[in-house]
Amino acid sequence: QVQLVESGGGSVQAGGSLRLSCEASVNVRRVCMAWFREAPGKEREGVAAFDTDGYTSYAVSVEGRFTISKDYTHNRLYLHLGSLVPEDTAMYHCASGCRGPSVLRPPWDNWGQGTQVAVSP
């Protein structure tokens, strides 16, 4: 069972930034990994992902503002959130093992408990 532990969430004002971290119990080098978010009343949304070849994908809603990256040495996945807006408020989860029609679409094999991001106006 892959274990994923997220950290780095918090409360920020609009326009601010955060960096989320995900520590994985497996080698992240050639694994499809993604960040998705969940907010009350909204559908689960994949926001950024690496496919197994290392190519990145971003949701239209975050492209140009969020950046996904990997640390192969420490088996970590990061998500830098920039130019935050209140609509980015959500629980952010790290996931591995992409099984959906695209790397940004569910389902994924494993995901963590999440880290909360709250953006105030």
Q: Rg to the nearest angstrom?
A: 13 Å
Total helical elements: 0
Order of helices and strands: EEEEEEEEEEE
Q: State the secondary-structure class.
A: mainly beta
As residue ranges, the low-confidence spans are: none
- Mean of residue pLDDT values: 96
The major beta sheet can be summarized as: 7 strands, mixed
Structure write-up:
With 121 residues, the chain is mainly beta. It has no helices and 11 strands. β4 (33-38) and β5 (45-50) form a beta hairpin. The mean pLDDT is 96.
Features:
121 residues; 4-stranded antiparallel sheet; 7-stranded mixed sheet; 11 strands; 0% helix
Topology:
Elements: E1 4-7, E2 10-13, E3 18-24, E4 33-38, E5 45-50, E6 56-58, E7 66-71, E8 76-81, E9 90-98, E10 108-111, E11 115-120
Parallel strand pairs: 2-11
Antiparallel strand pairs: 1-3, 3-8, 4-5, 4-9, 5-6, 7-8, 9-10, 9-11
Sum this structure up briefly.
This protein is mainly β and 121 residues long. Helices cover 0% and strands 50% of the residues. The radius of gyration is 13 Å and the shape is globular.
